[in-house]
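chain below, 483 aa
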Amino acid sequence: MSSLYPGLRDCKAWQDAGLSLSTPSNEACKLFDAALSQYVTWTNDKTLGGIEGCLSKMQEADPTFVMGHVIANGLELIGTGRSVHCDVELDTAVKRMVELSKAQPLSNREQLHVAAVETFAKGCLPRAAVLWDKILQEHPTDLLALKFAHDTYFYLGTSIQMRDSVARVLPYWSLNIPFSSYVRGMYSFGLMETNFYDQAYRIATESLAVDQRDAWSVHTIAHVYEMTAEVKSGLRFMEATEKNWKECDMLACHNYWHYALYFIEKGEYESALTVYDKHLAPHCFSSGAMLDVVDTCSLLYRLQMEGVNVGDRWKKLVQVTKKHAKDHILIFNDLHVLMSSLGASDHDTTSQLLSTLQQAIKTPGDNYEHALAKTLGSPLCQALVEVENKNYSKAVELIYPLRYQICQIGGSNAQRDVFNQLLIYCAMNSKLSSHQKLASSLLIERDALKPNSPLTERLMRKASAVHALAHLGSLPDKIVDSI
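prediction:
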């Protein structure tokens, strides 16, 4: 390992960086660095053996290396595709990590890492993020703590905290520290999510000038173009940079999702379906990663609301999503899995998801998402069911009171926009005139925040037509016939 990968840090290099690792194995330290590097760059580097290969070799090099267990368990948990409540193997691995930590004289930083991962595993996401931030107060260049905190705040929908967690450590990230440009890229995303679009674009562009393969900075710019409805610029940018980020397999599917959103915005549905068939679906079926799962579900659902026939794609997709029906790790995930089971008319998976969610709500304990599911997750799931049953008025009554709380399900503004669109869709299709007026009001609001959006303009035309038809329906037949 040492001769093949001279750039990776051994025990002394980590110590010199002020981030000592409690292991005598230089090999384990370098493999830890290799896994961390791939996590930050969203890649599975074949020359390193991929993340899984590095984690496996690291355990062989030192089976009792606690920080090795921290990164292995942390990466499984942060992927949100496995839960200790449903997965005995993962539960055992987390418990093993805790046992090892108690048997060794670890540094305070390492003990906090163990506590944060264990806390995340229990579903106490806000507390886990606080623990990682506590590490950063003493060790601002601890990239693992920074990235875990960044992702956790993203799952919580707390975009200000996500931004500021990185802002607080930026002055310590000099250019000679590995991945300093990627840290600035992380900051750019927090800026974008808090509507500082110009600043986000500038910093992401600067990060790409350092490393054009930075898929997360590409992702920030894709979001900026999405949020400002600069569709032509967005498409040109994604086309020009595709060769740089398409090999970042952990984020490539999501960047292609952004690519497809531009086509939906333009009303070019066949192009969006082509991106789905060529990139999103193959990535999702191959990786099974939750980010890929939610993106594929979201894209089909948006197309469906646009009146597009998606064929048998739901039935194929549900074969991947249904195994997550009982996870209940994130409300965000549950909603997208439910979209797929409803779209595929898979009544068994729908029933399983809804019934086990109710069980989780009854005994939430310290699990943040289970507690939140009672007031937010459950009614939103019910709204999706009502939409499937064409009970649009009921769906509006469920979604509208929650519209300013939906940010708590996590994800980005662009990802959560599917629920904004759903509320408008339901209000337009409701038979109640008050809901149709609500649709018009929401579209005026949407146009003010995102002017020149082709999608908004299309919806406005549809809403006007619906309103006109409703008005005609209230007139005497003779007058209607004469119009």
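The chain has 25 helices and no strands. The radius of gyration is 24 Å.
thats it, cya
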